[in-house]
Amino acid sequence: MKYDIVIIGSGLGGLECGLILSKEGLNVCVLEQSSKVGGNLQSFTRDGCIFDTGMHYIGSMDEGQYLHKYFKYFGIADKLKLKQLDTDGFDTLTFDGDDTEYKLSQGYDNFASRLLQHFPQEKKAIDQYISRIRAVTDDFPLYDPSGTDSYHIPLPTLETCALGFLSGLSNNERLKNVLAGGLSLYPGHAGKTPLYVHACMRDSLINSCWRPVDGSQQIADLLVAGIKSYGGTVLTSHRVNEIIVENEEARAVLLDNGETIYGDNFISNAHPITSLKMIREGKIRKIYRKRITNLDNTWGAFSLYAVLKKDSFPYLNKNYFHYSADGILNASHDEKRWPDNYYFYTPATSNTGRFAESIMLMADMKFEEVSPWLGTKINRRGEEYEAFKAGKAEKLLTALEKRLPGIRANIEKVYTSTPLTFHDYTGTDEGSAYGIMKNCHDPLRSIILPRTKINNLFFTGQNMNLHGILGVTASAVITCSEIVGLQYLTNKISNG
Ligand SMILES: Cc1cc2nc3c(=O)[nH]c(=O)nc-3n(C[C@H](O)[C@H](O)[C@H](O)COP(=O)(O)OP(=O)(O)OC[C@H]3O[C@@H](n4cnc5c(N)ncnc54)[C@H](O)[C@@H]3O)c2cc1C
């Protein structure tokens, strides 16, 4: 079988590329190794509760906002089931030894006035923070699809560090740690996070902040329906083992079921290191392979999915981030103090009323902790692995119990996952949560361009410019622009 476009992987980036290109009349085939589409968009059900694996909340989905513009073009904006989080505190931050709940609010005026209540002496620093965040996102290519004529991020943007900027704002350590809180810095690598990564995550959520109702899987399922409506093909349980390359051109992919699928152009949504492993030695420039293979990944996550007893704990329409007294900027990441910071929230379903059905807890985790079990099979990793996970779950629940006394008594059952789970389910190198780390101290080395050293093979997904729903969406447009043209595509998206 031959297609115009063969896409390896049905994560957000792969599916968005599939939809953009099938809308353009190209004959697209998306190949997914798992039995379910979505990669990090996957949700799963246990004991009647729906849990998300890697997409817990999203920003800028109000009519006319950036993500909404993209999703409207995809034809999915008005079909998504989303719940807007508390406008006065979508993220609530707490610190050991401090009773205050610091709130990050939606809408810039609201965001500023709420922070001023917490830090009345810091108006200048807060104003400076906001104007810089807005300036960085205004200049970030494809953050807003309108009026973009290049997707290259200017060097000064790449080499500005979030930490340097935040440190210079004020002498108030708590304010700086509040501004740095939430999912806005690379876990474990605060010092390397470029300011643009922090700014885009923060701005997108201040614009408006939403939780998927009944799971983020719906985003993947709607994109698949879109691809199929334009005549495209999406095949699950179809793992690509090899990209067959001849004379620096990709000809076909070889699947683990022995099938060969031919194409004119190929897009890999798999992690670039995983993708390069699909190309035989000698078929791609050695120096390119070496550069990509040596890049650092961001850390992964340990996730705890807790089923709650019926009507035992209220639904919380916000996210909670808890930090040690030092905050995220000075976190020790000392194993003995794990989890010195963690995140929790109560998922929303169509049935959610006053009470929550479940709680989701997450803390950062390095791949080294689980690498001894690399190569073992899911659900058959052995007793030591189960004991390791149980120990981590115990520590995380003990930390939560301090924050929410009595919560354990409300928990009926607990499930957990580690970076090894992500490694095996999504093929992401080292089970990294946000893929390849963009390092503001060495920016050019970590840039992944859509064009590879194989003429008709492209990359897409979170490893390019930026992770998260907006970053991956922009990356999909960048990748497809190599095939259909950037201005042509952004004009179409801007015009709905
Ligand atoms: C714990 C966690 C929490 C997060 N929370 C948020 C959040 O709240 N909000 C937010 O915006 N972002 C969040 N993110 C980030 C976000 O989920 C990712 O940036 C995004 O989903 C990545 O999409 P992607 O297209 O790059 O690919 P992925 O989701 O990595 O998908 C890649 C796909 O390729 C497939 N694949 C790999 N190898 C092969 C092969 N050989 N053959 C066929 N298929 C293959 C995989 O199975 C997978 O389906 C979170 C991530 C994690 C891990």
Describe, in plain words, how this protein is organized in 3D:
The protein is of the alpha/beta class and 496 residues long. It is built from 15 helices and 19 strands. The chain has helices at residues 12-23, 66-74, 108-118, 123-139, 155-158, 162-167, 173-179, 195-207, 217-229, 272-276, 286-293, 383-403, 419-426, 468-484, 486-494, and strands at residues 2-8, 28-31, 43-46, 49-52, 58-59, 82-84, 91-95, 98-104, 209-212, 233-235, 240-246, 249-255, 260-268, 300-308, 319-323, 341-345, 358-365, 411-417, 457-459. A hairpin with a 4-residue loop joins strand 12 and strand 13. Helix 1 (12-23) runs parallel beside helix 9 (217-229), helix 3 (108-118) packs antiparallel against helix 4 (123-139) and helix 14 crosses helix 15.
List the SSEs and their pairings.
Layout: E1 2-8, H1 12-23, E2 28-31, E3 43-46, E4 49-52, E5 58-59, H2 66-74, E6 82-84, E7 91-95, E8 98-104, H3 108-118, H4 123-139, H5 155-158, H6 162-167, H7 173-179, H8 195-207, E9 209-212, H9 217-229, E10 233-235, E11 240-246, E12 249-255, E13 260-268, H10 272-276, H11 286-293, E14 300-308, E15 319-323, E16 341-345, E17 358-365, H12 383-403, E18 411-417, H13 419-426, E19 457-459, H14 468-484, H15 486-494
Parallel strand pairs: 1-2, 1-13, 2-10, 7-15, 13-19
Antiparallel strand pairs: 3-4, 5-9, 6-9, 7-8, 11-12, 12-13, 14-17, 14-18, 15-16, 16-17
The protein binds flavin-adenine dinucleotide.
